[in-house]
Amino acid sequence: xxxxxxxxxxxGNCHKVRLLLSALGLPYxxxxxxxLVGAHKQPEFLALNPLGQVPVLVDGDTVISDSQAILVYLxxxxxxxxxxxxxxxxxxxxxxxxxxxxxxxxxxxHLARLHFLLKLGNDLALAQxxxxxxxxxxxxxxxxxxxxxEERPTIADFAxxxxxxxxxxxxxxxxxxxxxxxxxxxxxxxxxYVTMPGL
Length: 199
Ligand SMILES: N[C@@H](CCC(=O)N[C@@H](CS)C(=O)NCC(=O)O)C(=O)O
Description:
The protein is of the alpha+beta class. It has seven helices and four strands, in the order E-H-E-H-E-E-H-H-H-H-H. The chain has two domains: 3-78, Glutaredoxin (3-Layer(aba) Sandwich), CATH 3.40.30; 88-188, Glutathione S-transferase Yfyf (Class Pi), Chain A, domain 2 (Up-down Bundle). The chain has helices spanning 12-24, 43-46, 67-78, 88-117, 124-141, 155-165, 178-188; strands spanning 3-7, 29-32, 56-59, 62-65. A hairpin with a 2-residue loop joins strand 3 (56-59) and strand 4 (62-65). The chain starts with a strand and ends in an 11-residue tail after the last helix. It binds glutathione.
C-alpha cells in the first residue's frame, strides 16, 4: 500500500506530518496542491477534504485530513506506543498539545507568519500577542524537560514544532524563551529530522 501526502512545501501543518513520516521511516509520495492557484478549492481536492485545506493523507483506502488527525492515525497505526502512548493520562497530556497546535499555534505564530508571507492584512498585534503568551507558557513547561511530554519526541512535539520554529517569519523572536529555543534545536538534531523552507 502506498502513502500519499497532499500538501504544499510552505505549509507548517504539512510539515508536522512529514516529521512523523520520517521518524516512522515510512516511504511516501508528496502530491503538490498548489494553494497559490487555488488547487485546494477544485472539485478533485474537495472530494478528499471538503474544507479545502492541506494536509490530506491517503493510505490505501483510508483518507484522513487535518494535521492533528493524521498524526494520531499514523502514530497508532505504525508504532503503537512510541509517539502516542495509550495510557489515559499520558495520552490526554499529548492530546492537549494537539489542541494547542490547532488553537494557540494557529492563531498566534501561524497567523503572524501569514501576515508577512501572504500579506493577509490580518491583525498582526493580536497574532503576536497570542504567540508571546504561548511561548511564555511553553518556556515554563519546558523547564527541566527534554521534550514536551516524554523523554523522546511524541506527536505533541511534532504538532507544536513547525509554527514555533517558523515564528521568526512572523517577526517573533525566541530570544526571550531559551527553553523553547533549546527544544527547537533538539528537534532539529533528531536523526530523522527533515527540514522545510524557513526552518
Ligand atoms: N486544522 C487544519 C488546518 C489546515 C490549514 O489551515 N491548512 C492551510 C495550509 S497550512 C490551508 O490549506 N489553507 C488554505 C485554506 O484554508 O483555504 C490542520 O491542522 O490540518
